[in-house]
Amino acid sequence: MLTAYRWELRKLVSQRRIYLGIGGAAAAPILLTIVLAVQKGGPYDEPLGPNMHTSGIALALVVLGLAARFGAQLATALVAGDIVASEDADGTLKMILTRSLKRSQILTAKTLATFTYLLVLLLVLLAASLSAGLARRGFNPLVDLSQGRISPVRALELSIAAFAIFALPLAGIAAFGILLSVLTRNSAAAIVGTLLYQLLMEGASSVVHVPVLGHYLLASQFDAWHGLFQTPIDWTPVIRASWDSALFTIVPLLAAFAIFLRRDVTG
Amino acid sequence: MSGRDRVTEVPVRARGLLKRYGPIVAVDDVDLTVGEGDIYGFLGPNGAGKTTAMRMLLGLVRPDAGSARLFGRDPQHELPAALDGVAGFVETPTFYPYLSGRKNLELFAAFDGGDAPSRIEQVLEIVELRERARDKVGGYSQGMRQRLGIAVSLLRNPRLLIVDEPTNGLDPAGIRDIRELLKRLAEQGMTVVLSSHLLAEVQELCTRVAIIRSGSIVYEGRLDRLAANPETSYRLRPSDAAQAWNVCNQQSGLRNLRRVGDELVFIAAERTVVELSRALVAAGVGIAALIPDSTALERTFFELTEGSPGQTTERVPE
User: Fold this and answer.
1) Of A15, A98, A102, the CB nearest to B88
2) Does B302 map to a domain?
3) What pLDDT was estimated at residue B311?
4) Which of A26, A234, B102, B136 could staple A227 via S-S, CB 3.0–4.6 A?
5) Which chain A residue has its CA at the smallest distance from B21's CA?
6) Do A98 and B152 touch (CB under 8 A)?
7) B24, B102, B111, B157: best to mutate for the A interface, most A CBs within 10 A
8) Are B265 and B195 part of one and the same domain?
9) Between A and B, how many CB-CB pairs are < 8 A?
10) d(CA A243, CA A236)
11) Given an 8 Å threshold on Cβ–Cβ distance, is A100 in contact with B94?
12) Separation CA B244–CA B266 (nearest Å)
């Protein structure tokens, strides 16, 4: 299985599409820094946005807030929606399924490769935004959402944790993308379907005014990291994001495996 | 199942394979038996169900009914073990175009494990792709991809090779190369199952054949037996046409005897032709050539594959 995983990574690295996401993750913080420098203002409506003029670390968190609405899901959908469907359409799936690996091993390798890509994407986003932010504003303390003061080292630790928490619902998006990739056998349909799924989740979370329900939609979990920047830390959204995202990840993956293990490969 | 049992099992045994796609019956009650060392042709027009049947053999498609065994193992329930010693591809072999030929081989070898990676150089040599191995597959010709497909199959050191239309889309040189390659592999003891819609190809390569039409097997057996059915036409080029004409006229079992230049043309069963050749020699007539007319085989093939279903769905006995 590790062999298949390594080769899935090599295949991903050999494809241009993943560099759209990685390149975007690397460029976005720099572009944002330039834009903010030019317009002399700040994204005050973003949580922790007012810190942008005092602490370089704040840029990473503003970028994370923006990524929740733009980009991260697209980059995820591009890879997750494509990972099985493109091989099905191109005919390579039938080639690898007649080798000495089980179907479950192959789909597991593809799933792990997708999740690895997400981690790399977020690491690049974190590294680029920290680099840009620190270069412009320095390694300074942060004022959190409760107006408490956080030391630079603590702020850095919390920022890394925030990216990790952000990865949880993103995995849920990826899992749905993989399901569509298996189900539709069509890369474009799976990518668009994954984005629609995300939009529906966003729409539902803004329309559903019943807090009990709205809090548990996947889109709501992208803001769970805000709890880290309260004094004291509010663990409730973080814990909820953990199990809620796990549910949104596991259920589609189970469905994807159930379909993939039994389906006819006719591409 | 022990390794000894597996060795004694026939390479392919399929019984009652059935596959429906909605209202369309793609494969209908197909039985196949491929013996060790056979070059087995799976012959039929496009859309007859050859590829679907091969997909079922390789475990890519689940039959709605029936079962298949490869060396005694069920590819529907015992994958990947059922593919031990088995390799092949259906339709055009496909690869990762952004990887080189060698990288593709490395990938498939890694998926196979064992000593497959150590065979990469050897299989590149066999299919004569060593010099282009570093080029990306995206730049390969159709023929090179077909050869790479066979190379990928050979990585598994198979005892049974299943290839679907291996010369499809190739130029004459490519067709010749692939056919020679398959012959060489068969000479080395490999059992080969190949599908084709080309009668000439199957005639050239195969020892046994299954002819499929509209999802059903209409003939299974030796191809020469099919050609030797009572309706087979022969051309005789004797040393003395007049004397041969007299002998033929006295020979029972000959029909439609006629003279075409220095040759005699007639229809007869194989047994009758044997008797006739003896009679000719006894009468002092030399036989320069006695050739079964391939057009008769073609005619039989077309009758089997294009006739109305009611006429030809019964299996022709061997």
Assistant:
1) A98
2) no
3) 37
4) A234
5) A264
6) no
7) B111
8) no
9) 77
10) 11
11) no
12) 12
Answer whether B88 sits within 8 Å of A99, measured CB to CB: no
For residue A140, give the 3-state DSSP assignment: coil
Domains of chain B: total: 2
Q: Which domain holds residue B265?
A: 233-292
For residue B311, give how far its alpha carbon lies from the nearest alpha carbon of chain A (Å). Answer: 31
Q: Give the pLDDT score at B187.
A: 87
Q: Among B92, B95, B108, select the one facing A99 at the smallest CB separation.
A: B108
Quote the minimal CA–CA distance from B92 to chain A in Å. 8
In a domain, B51, yes or no: yes
Q: Running DSSP on this structure, what letter comes out for residue B42?
A: E
CB contact under 8 A, A266 and B96: no
What CATH code is carried by the domain that includes residue B139? 3.40.50.300
**Residue A7 and residue B110: Cβ atoms within 8 Å?**
yes
Q: Is there a domain that residue B298 lies in?
A: no
Question: Which residues from A are below 8 Å from B when comparing CB atoms?
Answer: 3-4, 6-7, 10-11, 14-15, 90-92, 94-103, 262, 264-266
The Cα–Cα gap between B72 and B86 comes to 12
- One domain for residues B168 and B274: no
Same domain, yes or no: B91 and B153: yes
Task: Tell me the nearest-neighbour CA distance from B16 into chain A, angstroms.
Answer: 18
Kindly report which listed range (A132-141, B225-234, B238-247) carries the lowest average pLDDT score: B225-234
Residues comprising chain B, all counted: 318
**With a threshold of 0.90, does the pTM exceed it?**
no
Instruction: Let me know if residue B299 belongs to a domain.
Output: no
Q: Are residues B182 and B256 in the same domain?
A: no
Q: What residues of chain B lie within 8 A of the CB of A91, using their CB? A: 91-92, 94
A29-57 residue pLDDT tens: 888 888 877 776 667 677 777 788 888 88
Q: Concatenated DSSP letters for chain B?
A: --HHHHHHS-SEEEEEEEEEETTEEEEEEEEEEE-TT-EEEEE--TTSSHHHHHHHHTTSS--SEEEEEETTB-TTTSTTGGGTTEEEESSS----TTSBHHHHHHHHHHHH-TTGGGGHHHHHHHTT-GGGTTSBGGG--HHHHHHHHHHHHHTT--SEEEEESTTTT--HHHHHHHHHHHHHHHHTT-EEEEEES-HHHHHHH-SEEEEEETTEEEEEEEHHHHHTSTT-EEEEEES-HHHHHHHHHHSTT-EEEEEETTEEEEE--HHHHHHHHHHHHHTT--EEEEEE-HHHHHHHHHHHHHS-HHHH-SPBP-
